[in-house]
Write a structure and sequence with these properties.
Number of strands: 0
Number of helices: 10
Largest sheet: none
Radius of gyration: 34 Å
Order of helices and strands: HHHHHHHHHH
């Protein structure tokens, strides 16, 4: 079965249609992770992988070389990042932006989600248009680009999981000191001051004891040089 959406049919760069086509599903991966619904991401990952794998399978059948396939995947990453940045980050406040409002978000707010997608979009564009992630070479392979692409997406999904985990952890109650538990009004500053005073008195007491011992030994000694020795 083949589904064709003729509404936005146009001639464009190779990989543009696939890049735009996976932009919203990748956003849903992050949204589900932020909502704690990781089980819902399995079918979305399968959809994205089947689409990309089938697309490149057809390109290989048409005789595309390995370096061409790698370049096309970089185009897909670039168009995906570009669309995400425009639609989900820059225009996130647009009330008519139905895609942003249809993200499956339940726990976190949509602003946080759009920020996360915006970060990923910049990374995908860097993968496409820069050589920060992959050094440009004549022997560029599809598998190499695919590994980086998958890693960037999975890394942002993992970060979204951390956001969900940090938001659901119960805040630990503040531990009360014995003085607070007995409802005695004594500030922490006063406690530190009293502790310092106690150490001061202890030091003076030890000094007096040492001096007394020295005097006793000195009195019992007939020669001061013997005491020094």
């Amino acid at each position: 079965m083949v589904l064709v959406d003729w509404e936005m049919t146009m001639a464009g760069a190779i990989g543009q249609d696939v890049g735009k086509g996976i932009a919203f599903p990748i956003g849903c991966l992050i949204a589900h992770a932020m909502s704690g619904h990781m089980e819902a991401n399995e079918s979305i990952k399968a959809h994205i992988n089947i689409l990309i794998d089938t697309y490149f399978s057809r390109l290989k059948d048409d005789g595309k070389a390995e370096d061409e396939l790698a370049s096309i995947l970089k185009n897909i990453a670039g168009w995906c990042g570009w669309f995400q940045y425009i639609a989900f980050y820059l225009f996130r406040e647009d009330p008519h932006n139905s895609q942003v409002h249809n993200f499956p978000v339940e726990v976190v707010n949509k602003a946080h989600l759009c920020d996360s997608i915006g970060v990923l979009s910049l990374k995908l564009m860097r993968l496409s248009y820069d050589d920060d992630y992959i050094t440009e070479s004549a022997s560029l392979e599809l598998e190499e680009v695919r590994k980086v692409f998958d890693y960037l997406v999975e890394d942002e999904v993992t970060r979204a999981q951390y956001v969900f985990a940090s938001g659901t952890n119960k805040r630990q109650p503040r531990k009360s000191s014995m003085l607070r538990a007995t409802n005695r009004r004594l500030s922490d500053t006063e406690m530190l001051f009293l502790a310092a005073e106690s150490m001061k008195r202890l030091s003076i007491a030890e000094l007096n004891t040492t001096t007394t011992k020295q005097v006793s030994i000195s009195e019992g000694s007939e020669n001061s040089a013997e005491l020094l020795q």
